[in-house]
Specification:
Radius of gyration of chain A: 18 Å
CATH topology of chain B: Rossmann fold
CATH superfamily of chain B: P-loop containing nucleotide triphosphate hydrolases
Helix content of chain B: 40-55%
Oligomer: heterodimer
Order of helices and strands of chain A: HHHHHHHHHHHH
Structural class of chain B: alpha/beta
Number of strands of chain A: 0
Order of helices and strands of chain B: EEEHEEHEHHHEHEHEEHHH
Number of domains of chain A: 1
Structural class of chain A: mainly alpha
Number of strands of chain B: 10
Number of helices of chain A: 12
Shape of chain B: globular
Chain lengths: ~250, ~260
């Protein structure tokens, strides 16, 4: 346990020490909230859907989580390039635990980032339906963060240099974000899009956030949590298999 | 303690290690010499479970490295040839993480961290982030970290590369004491002949992925009629200079360095 904890703590320390990374990772969600939140506000209102900013905020939280956690998971590449990965790969502990420590750390970082965005959204005018449910949304954010950190770790374990990083960002993370219902409602989508969206785990994450924060869920909270749990275990399993096979 | 039987390692069409066999009994200090690209680091990476062998059998502390990597990892410590510190953490934090990962109880951990950081003269810099360290300081920290836990076998891949004679001396004294008091098996590679001759009980010379000679320094000299170990080494491996191909990691580090200089 202590070993997993120290690897978790390492991720947290690295996060707290890189102020520029914190600010950089917050700029994008703020931009979405401001530009899209206010920009599409009028159209959304006219379509009878209420406040777009309120609708968008859970989606932007989902966005913050997927970007931060995928990035954290992919720090494996960084650690490989700078050598620290070797130190953990030869340590006398199961590699699964090494992966778990890193992943829990990355997920914690992503959850903190998401909470900062949530607090910031209050200043933009976002109001949750109920404050106790907002607290319940925090473990749910952590679950989604864990899911994507595990996915990031799995993907990064198979890559040996930074070149693959951009590829993953453009061909995996961006599609996952845009095909998730983070920025548009799931009702009335074309059939093909609706199908793609329904196999994307982020969709269920954002849907669960909407259920808890603004009391409007498409699939229902129980389905969302069930899908997220299954996907998280699947990615953790996949990530640990990939991580165990790393050669350095 | 270490048994290697018919070990080979191929990367695509390159054969880095070609059917080598040797063994190192417990408590021995064993040196691994060879020109650049001869297969020293590859062999050490296989012995320490970082690479899987293509063929052959490797036992460390009676456990097969390919089948029981977790048991093998509990038996050894290693000082890597290339950097393996977390440069965003302090010297002390790097030591602390290592101590925790290797199950050192808190009291012993704190004592040894202080003892070793003093040994490599980094104690007054213990709370500085490694990023601010010079190359030599980082190297000293790597060595201190490698010595923190006392394993059955200690691997050191060119540990003294870029170290000043003072630190080199301190390090070998510490290692010899460890070897004498705790029976630690020491397996190291080096380019310094005097080091191998002075420290090692036996020496293996590897070239083009094969072991070309193995024995005590005296035996190697006798075998080649060389007056010094260096002469014996050159007689066995020839005098052409070898090029080592740079890996992706080296390119990356070079890139980052060039960016930082701007």
């Amino acid at each position: 346990m202590h070993k997993i904890y120290i690897l978790w703590l390492r991720q947290i320390k690295r996060y707290l020490r890189s102020r520029s990374r914190i600010v950089g990772a917050l700029a994008q969600p703020m931009l979405y909230l401001m530009a899209l939140g206010y920009g599409f506000g009028a159209v959304f209102q006219q379509a009878g859907q209420g406040s777009y900013l309120t609708f968008l905020t859970p989606g932007v939280i989902g966005m913050t989580i997927i970007f931060t956690s995928m990035f954290s998971g992919m720090e494996v590449i960084w650690d490989r390039q700078f050598g620290f990965l070797k130190e953990t790969l030869v340590a006398p502990m199961p590699r699964f635990n090494v992966m778990l420590g890193r992943t829990l750390g990355g997920a914690t970082v992503a959850t903190i980032q998401a909470l900062i965005v949530l607090v910031a959204s209050l200043f933009f005018g976002f109001r949750p339906t109920s404050w106790p449910l907002l607290l319940a949304a925090i473990p749910c954010m952590f679950l989604v963060a864990l899911l994507f950190t595990a996915l990031g770790t799995a993907v990064a374990s198979g890559l040996s240099d930074m070149q693959g990083f951009q590829l993953i960002m453009n061909f995996l993370v961006m599609p996952l974000f845009f095909f998730s219902g983070a920025i548009y409602p799931l009702e009335g989508l074309p059939r093909a899009l609706s199908l793609v969206v329904s196999i994307n785990p982020l969709t269920y994450g954002v849907d669960a956030f909407r259920g808890l924060l603004i009391n409007s869920s498409h699939y229902g909270l129980a389905t969302d949590i069930a899908v997220l749990c299954v996907a998280t275990f699947a990615f953790l399993y996949m990530g640990s298999r990939m991580f165990e096979r790393i050669e350095a | 303690m270490i048994q290697v039987r018919n070990l080979s390692k191929r990367f695509n069409d390159l054969t880095a290690v070609n059917d080598i066999s040797f063994s190192v009994p417990a408590g021995e200090i064993f040196a691994f010499l060879g020109p650049n690209g001869a297969g020293k680091s590859t062999t050490i990476k296989i012995l320490t479970t970082l690479l899987r062998p293509t063929a052959g059998e490797v036992l460390v502390n009676d456990h097969n490295v390919a089948l029981k990597p977790d048991e093998v990892r509990r038996s050894f410590g290693i000082v890597f040839q290339d950097p393996s510190l977390d440069s965003e953490l302090t010297a002390w934090e790097n030591m602390e993480i290592h101590g925790v990962l290797y199950d050192l109880p808190k009291k012993q951990r704190r004592e040894r961290i202080e003892q070793l950081l003093r040994l490599v003269e980094l104690w007054d810099r213990k709370d500085s982030v490694v990023m601010t360290f010079s190359g030599g300081m980082r190297r000293r920290l790597e060595i201190a970290r490698g010595l923190l836990h006392h394993p059955r076998v200690l691997f050191l891949d060119e540990p003294t590369l870029g170290l000043d004679p003072q630190t080199r001396n301190q390090m070998w004294n510490y290692l010899r004491e460890l070897n004498r008091n705790e029976g630690t098996t020491v397996f190291f590679s080096t380019h310094y002949m005097d080091e191998a001759e002075r420290i090692a009980d036996r020496i293996a010379i590897i070239d083009h992925g094969r072991i070309v000679a193995l024995g005590t320094a005296a035996e190697l000299k006798q075998q080649t009629n060389g007056a010094t170990l260096e002469e014996a080494f050159l007689a066995l491996t020839g005098s052409t200079i070898r090029e080592e191909t740079a890996g992706a990691a080296d390119h990356m580090r070079a890139f980052v360095r060039s960016q930082m200089r701007r």
